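Our consortium's second objective concerns turning raw sequence data into structural hypotheses that experimental partners can test. To show how far this objective has progressed, the report includes one record in full. It was chosen at random from the queue rather than selected for favorable results. The single chain below, 194 residues long, was entered without modification.
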Amino acid sequence: MMLATHLGISDGLLKPWRSFLDNFVRSFQVHTALSPAVQSNQGLPEGCSLSVAGMVLIDWAFHVYLSALTPSVHAFSYVDNISEAGHVTMEVVSAFFSTLCFFQLWGLTLDFGKTYFWSTSAHNRALLRLLGLSLRSDALELGGSMTFEASKRNRQLRARGEQLQPKWERLKRSMAPRAQKYQILPLAFWSAAL
């Protein structure tokens, strides 16, 4: 809210938004049971249209912060997906640690299970390994299969296809007419595989 105020967003919007965030409670449904109401103490609730505006503010602040500390590294962000690219390995590593500091300033945590590095240079990959950083040669990013070296890889997409095997077995056993089986392919199969 302080950042929004600093950027000149009207109190006519910020006061009701702050009031909503201060009073908003959530209940969680497990099977048929509803949990007691829980009040959030930080963050923006998913599904709230203003949370998009809040995320834009945080992303913008991240880009300003990173460009001040590591101007030679290019940062890319889409909601909670962040990528950083540069020509000098240690500058990218510095940007990564600056990102960790930024997250701490906002009370956010980085998902280290989804955090990885890559380089087109064997020397730089060895340096990143020496620093104990997780390296990948390919990954799924925002639904797309990314390959970070000369060899083409489709391991991630093949794994998605293999996960469909139980569905194929159920479809084969189904007594539904063939035309109906064809209709289900784009909805249940292709969307999951691609």
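The partners drew two points from this record. The longest helix spans residues 49-69. Helices lie at 2-6, 11-23, 49-69, 89-105, 122-130, 155-162, 165-173, 178-193. Both points have been shared with the crystallography group to help prioritize constructs.
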